[in-house]
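Why should sequence recovery work at all? Because a backbone constrains its sequence more than one might expect. Tight turns favour small or flexible residues, buried strands favour hydrophobic ones, and helices have their own preferences. The token representation captures these environments compactly. In the example below, the structure is given first.
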């Protein structure tokens, strides 16, 4: 049965070529579409991690529920000791402390409400590889009273590197405090909303402003993003007894989860469309081939072949076509993915951003397997109905097709 089906596949050259073209195009299209969607996820996740959140953040338990109402109750009082414990984890690349606050930034003429972060400048510069400095330079450890501003903050207050500003904020005890700062640079991150309100100052300056030696969060950078869940599980076990909680970058960026859900839905529709296109194209080609070979099948039945054997022969032929076409589509899809990735695809800025990026086609094993399976499944399903029809045709009626 298999040898006969294989001979029939190569004997019907025109129909085989038409069917293979549909299968190859569909499988390659699924690989490219799936690789592009996965690249969107990768690019978005790395932008969020390396511009704002890091891979993991450690807080005092209850910070997310009550921290904004009583921040003084949810400070990590001995961050250096905890940082050393975290840094010992094999997946951790760096640990840095942050102190968050809100206040008013004054340029001598007007005020602007801001959200601020006291940061360890050197380590933040390494983490923030997705943050672009569009004027001036990065904050450095030697800048005791320096500040870097989001692009939107600098634009509203008309500030540039070298200007001086006054930052006003409530200390943790409630008293109003102020500090004079020099603008060191202007940054642009992934998010327009963040850039419109955010500033960064040295951690020591923020602690002086708020009158505390504690920090709100410890930000963790990992060696590899795919190790996030593994590292989070270990750190939760270690730090839970100390009254601390660990949040992953996914939990800290609900925008990412919503985007992934949206794109997965769109890709699911695209998969269905390509499946239907392959199914209809293959069904048309198989129908034409079977109609032209009705006399052949009639002869086989007249010679003693059972209807079930005719049905199986047609299905096996289609399955072989699906296997060959899916294999060729797999090779073509991977080759195109590599070629396109080498060139890159210029993409416009995503929503809530003003910086474009260069997209690539990710080669994902699960997408390759799914595309391959869809190619074989669609081809086999397309043959079922015509195979059933021809196998039920009376031999006498089928033999008439020979004349």
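From this structural description, the recovered sequence reads:
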């Amino acid at each position: 049965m298999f040898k006969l089906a294989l001979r029939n596949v190569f004997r019907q050259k025109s129909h085989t070529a038409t069917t293979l073209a549909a299968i190859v195009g569909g499988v390659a299209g699924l690989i490219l579409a799936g690789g592009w969607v996965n690249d969107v996820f990768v690019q978005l996740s790395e932008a969020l991690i390396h511009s704002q959140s890091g891979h993991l953040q450690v807080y005092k338990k209850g910070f997310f529920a009550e921290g904004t109402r009583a921040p003084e109750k949810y400070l990590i009082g001995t961050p250096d000791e905890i940082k050393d414990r975290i840094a010992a984890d094999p997946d951790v690349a760096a640990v840095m402390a942050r102190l968050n606050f809100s206040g008013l930034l004054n340029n001598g003429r007007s005020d602007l409400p801001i959200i601020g972060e006291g940061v360890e400048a050197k380590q933040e510069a390494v983490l923030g590889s997705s943050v672009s400095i569009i004027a001036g330079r990065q904050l450095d450890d030697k800048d005791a009273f320096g500040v870097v501003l989001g692009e939107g903050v600098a634009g509203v207050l008309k500030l540039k590197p070298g200007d001086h500003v006054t930052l006003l904020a409530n200390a943790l005890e409630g008293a109003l405090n102020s500090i004079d700062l020099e603008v060191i640079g202007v940054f642009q991150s992934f998010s327009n909303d963040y850039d419109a309100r955010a500033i960064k100052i040295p951690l020591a300056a923020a602690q002086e402003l708020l009158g505390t030696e504690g920090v709100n969060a410890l930000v963790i950078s990992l060696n590899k993003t795919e190790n996030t869940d593994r590292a989070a599980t270990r750190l939760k076990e270690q730090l839970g007894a100390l009254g601390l909680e660990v949040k992953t970058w996914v939990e800290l960026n609900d925008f990412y989860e919503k985007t992934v859900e949206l794109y997965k839905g769109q890709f699911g529709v695209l998969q269905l469309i390509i499946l239907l296109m392959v199914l209809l194209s293959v069904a048309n080609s198989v129908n034409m081939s079977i109609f032209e070979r009705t006399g052949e099948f009639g002869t086989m039945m007249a010679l003693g072949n059972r209807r079930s054997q005719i049905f199986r022969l047609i299905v096996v032929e289609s399955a072989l076509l699906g296997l060959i076409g899916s294999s060729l589509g797999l090779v073509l899809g991977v080759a195109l993915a590599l070629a396109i990735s080498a060139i890159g695809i210029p993409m416009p800025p995503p929503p809530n951003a003003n910086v474009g990026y260069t997209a690539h086609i990710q080669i994902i094993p699960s997408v390759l397997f799914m595309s391959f399976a869809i190619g074989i499944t669609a081809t086999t399903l397309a043959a079922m109905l015509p195979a059933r029809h021809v196998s039920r045709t009376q031999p006498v009626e089928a033999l008439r097709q020979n004349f």
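A few observations help interpret the result. The mean pLDDT is 84.
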